[in-house]
Design goal:
Elements (H helix, E strand, L loop, with lengths): L9 H11 L4 E4 L4 H5 L5 E3 H17 L7 E5 L4 H12 L3 E4 L6 H11 L3 E5 L1 E2 L2 E2 H10 L6 E5 L8 E2 H5 L16 E9 L2 E8 H15 L6 E4 L6 H14 L2 E4 L5 H10 L4 E5 H8 L3 H4 L5 E6 L18 E7 L3 E6 L12 E5 L7 E8 L4 E5 L27 E9 L6 E5 L4 E4 L2 E4 H11 L6 E5 L3 E5 L2 H13 L4 H12 L1
Parallel strand pairs: 1-13, 3-4, 3-5, 4-10, 5-8, 8-9, 12-13, 12-14, 14-15, 15-16
Antiparallel strand pairs: 1-2, 6-7, 10-11, 16-17, 18-19, 19-20, 20-21, 21-22, 23-24, 25-26
Helix pairs in contact: 1-9, 3-4, 5-6, 8-9, 13-14, 14-15
């Protein structure tokens, strides 16, 4: 009897490289990890990583987490994040990624919306107690049964995963490795509000393929990821790209420029994946002389409407690939030519690589009847963005939709036929990569009192920045703290409003 073809999972990709080169370097921690988390940096081969993944996976099983249940993860960009994601998948669990900048209210909402059975965090990140944050959020989530943590001084009731890594693996369970199974849940903010976005393995792998093929990443490359992994783009650009190339993943917790350059040179990195604005800044200051081993740079644009007006790339030894991000809906990439300027992106199906005839279709770009950008393809979770049923029309069949409307305003250039992205979704603000509704900004401004000024202005580095008088900025930070915002988020606003 013929067995149906099964698409690979992330763990399948990991084990393929493990079988081929078990003693090759797999994971490299940030050099400044001791400052970030209190842990010493780790360097792990594929065999060592596999042992750690097996131990964590066995612990999840022994803890009683049922197959297909959700485990939420709020971790920095360190080795522990990668090990936990792969261990959860090996145990048959679904991973929900929680951004570090979230406040307790958002954490609790995400845990409740996904019915998460467990949460994994770090004791401290940049001196902020994430263990306490997780415990308080878990207390508001009915479904949470286990709270796990890496690090020291964990609160009572939180199980130590460092202790799990220090002992031999225990019980395992057989899990069918099928790329069509759910792999992750990320979270988006749209005009309709907070939205969980589930994805199968093949969708995440498709995102990684779209980037790695367009950028021409070689097999066995050493990839430096300086983009937070707590989103679809973050996971695709780090975990998926690494597993697809079968090389080494070096992690950088954003962002310290001197440490980043030291890591790139010490590990002889071939590929740098970073926020696009950061990449362009590095390219402006003698990239070839300072980081001679680089052969590819991938810049991720959280504000894709800014790509066309960006400056030219001036480091020909390491071509730049622009990756356009549309929240959690999807992405596409376009490698710049020899002149270093952004290339025109045409509507319709696009391959990976884009300019190669006969290449596999990575997705499709279209202009919707509303004059906004639509996406379809294997990485786009159409069902997660389906429009809500109209009130009173629950028995009426809804018109079929096979694309996601990103909400980004767009038009077709009459001269060349390229698609031009002109504005972000209305009602959505992005400050330092943190998306929120503009109504939230009005609420924060209301907390400042009568006569105060707080507004969001366009910013080419962070999407938007908060602006106001100096005394209002200080009061804004107090208001954010009163609203229960994560301390790191308050500090992010401090840096942005002081610029």
């Amino acid at each position: 009897m013929n067995q149906p073809a099964v698409s690979p999972t992330l763990d399948t990709l990991f084990q393929r490289t493990l079988m081929r080169q078990p003693h090759a370097p797999a994971l490299l921690d940030p050099l400044n990890k001791s400052r970030i988390t209190g842990h010493q940096p780790r360097r792990m081969t594929y065999a060592e990583a596999d042992t750690a993944i097996e131990a964590l996976s066995a612990h999840f099983v022994e803890s009683g987490l049922p197959a297909n249940s959700v485990v939420a993860i709020q971790l920095p960009s360190t080795v522990e994040f990668v090990l936990t994601v792969l261990a959860a998948h090996r145990a048959g669990l679904v991973v929900a990624v929680l951004p570090l900048l979230w406040r307790q209210a958002e954490l609790a909402a995400a845990l409740n919306r996904t019915a998460a059975r467990a949460i994994v965090t770090m004791s401290k990140v940049d001196s902020v107690s994430y263990a306490d944050l997780a415990m308080h959020a878990a207390a508001e989530a009915f479904s949470i049964r286990h709270v796990y943590g890496f690090g020291t001084d964990l609160p009572e009731g939180m199980a130590s995963l460092d202790a799990v890594l220090a002992r031999p693996p225990g019980t395992t369970r057989a899990v069918i490795q099928d790329g069509r199974k759910a792999a992750m849940i990320s979270f988006d903010v749209t005009a309709e509000g907070f939205r969980p976005v589930p994805r199968p393995h093949f969708s995440l792998i498709a995102g990684g393929l779209a980037m790695s093929l367009e950028a021409d990443i070689k097999q066995g490359a050493t990839v430096m990821s300086a983009f937070m992994p707590m989103s679809f783009a973050g996971l695709a650009s780090s975990l998926a790209v690494w597993l697809l190339c079968g090389g080494t993943l070096a992690l950088h917790h954003p962002f310290e420029s001197e440490v980043l350059e030291q890591q790139v040179n010490e590990h002889a990195c071939d590929v740098l994946i970073a926020p696009a604005q950061l990449a362009l800044r590095l390219g402006d200051s003698g990239l070839a002389a300072r980081m001679p081993t680089l052969r590819n740079v991938i810049g991720l644009w959280r504000a894709p409407e800014q790509v066309a007006a960006s400056e030219a790339w001036i480091a020909p030894h390491a071509p730049l690939t622009d990756v356009y991000l549309f929240g959690e809906a999807g992405l596409f990439g376009a490698r710049r030519g020899e002149d270093g300027v952004p290339v025109a992106v045409m509507p319709g199906p696009h391959g990976a690589p884009r300019e190669q005839s006969g290449s596999s279709i990575a997705g499709e770009i279209l202009l919707t009847p509303k004059g906004t950008l639509g996406l379809r393809g294997p990485m786009v979770p159409i069902a997660a963005y389906a429009p809500p049923h109209q009130v009173g029309e629950t028995l009426t069949a809804q018109p079929p939709r096979d694309y996601v409307d990103t909400g980004y305003a767009a038009r077709i250039d009459r001269a060349c036929g390229a698609i031009c992205i002109t504005a972000p979704p209305s009602g959505i603000m992005a400050v330092g990569g943190y998306r929120f509704l503009s109504n939230d900004l009005q609420e924060w401004a209301r907390r400042l009192g009568q006569g105060a000024l707080l507004t969001a202005l366009p910013d080419r580095f962070s999407g938007h920045r908060l602006a106001g008088r100096a005394q209002d900025n200080a009061r804004a930070r107090e208001a954010l703290s009163e609203l229960g915002l994560n301390p790191l988020m308050v500090e992010a606003f401090r840096e942005i409003t002081n610029n």
